[in-house]
Amino acid sequence: MLAAAACGGQAGKVQPRQTPLAAVQPATPTTPPTLSPSPSPSPSPAAAAAQSHVFVIVMENRSYSQALAGRYASQLAKDYGVATNYHGITHPSLPNYLAMTSGSTWGISDDAFHNLPAGGLGTQLTKAGVPWRAYMEGMSNGCFRSGYPYALKHNPFAYYGSACPAEVVPFNGFASDMASPDVPRFVWITPGLCNDGHDCSTAVADGWLAKTVPMILATSAWKDGGVLFITWDEGEDSANSVLTLVIHPHPQVHLSNQSYNHYSLLAAIEDSLGVSRLGVAARASPMADLMASNPG
């Protein structure tokens, strides 16, 4: 399993340092019939109250009940919003990460590197003038040459246009950035392969959340109308159920049994930041019940 963290060479010519589970071959993916080759924004996304800042943490490989076995995750579930009927899109990891950031799996069913067209959520935010940053734990030598515990397959932003955006940075600077007054409006966090639960226990991953989440909740960016989403990429049961937490001040709804998935997450992110929805997110529910806040 550790070999799946393999990283390659320069963008467009990715050569793995290790052998991943699926051979790394830059290839144009086959797009399923229901998806357009290049997901385009919806011209009129559903209206939603804009959030000042949006934070996303993506954990790994736990079904709903398994993720709730973590003491800290369980406490967050008691205090904030929980999507109790939320599911991953598919297996393995990569297509789920692409679904969260482009509204499409691009027909990909492996964790290999694929040359995708330029675009996705990061490009969309940049074009809209929305400051964003994606923190990758363990990334020490760029998107394509960093070793363990970084995993390229958990960095979807590098796939669009086979490039490493300047906004994708190592996790080392996260704490100091959260302590500054200039927190980007969109913050994505990918833990390393141990701390996300991929290679280590639920207790280890839960302990990492217990150290990281309070740094976000202490920021004025979150306190002043911000929202933090914590989700798991895929579940380990037949339903592909995953825990997704919607954490914002004064939640109106603590439990929702509405059917949601990673396209719903993307819809909620894009609606919150005031940009149009990409791909299948255009017709997904943006988790409006869990996003609602009580006055004051």
**Distance between the ends:** 47 Å
Q: Report the CATH topology name.
A: Alkaline Phosphatase, subunit A
Q: Give helix % range.
A: 25-40%
CATH class assignment: Alpha Beta
Overall shape: it is globular
Provide the residue-averaged pLDDT.
87
Largest sheet: 8 strands, mixed
Describe this structure in words.
The chain is α/β, with parallel strands linked by helices and 296 residues long. The chain has a single domain (48-291), classed as Alkaline Phosphatase, subunit A, CATH 3.40.720.10. It has helices at 64-67, 71-79, 93-102, 120-127, 142-145, 174-178, 202-217, 220-223, 262-273, 288-291, and strands at 54-59, 81-83, 86-87, 132-136, 168-170, 186-190, 227-232, 244-247, 255-256, 260-261. α5 (142-145) links the parallel β4 (132-136) and β5 (168-170). It is globular and about 45 Å long.
List the helices and strands and how they pair.
Blueprint: E1 54-59, H1 64-67, H2 71-79, E2 81-83, E3 86-87, H3 93-102, H4 120-127, E4 132-136, H5 142-145, E5 168-170, H6 174-178, E6 186-190, H7 202-217, H8 220-223, E7 227-232, E8 244-247, E9 255-256, E10 260-261, H9 262-273, H10 288-291
Parallel strand pairs: 1-6, 1-7, 2-9, 3-10, 4-5, 4-6
Antiparallel strand pairs: 2-8, 7-8
Helix pairs in contact: 3-9
Question: Summed up, what is this model?
Answer:
The chain has 296 residues and is an alpha/beta fold.
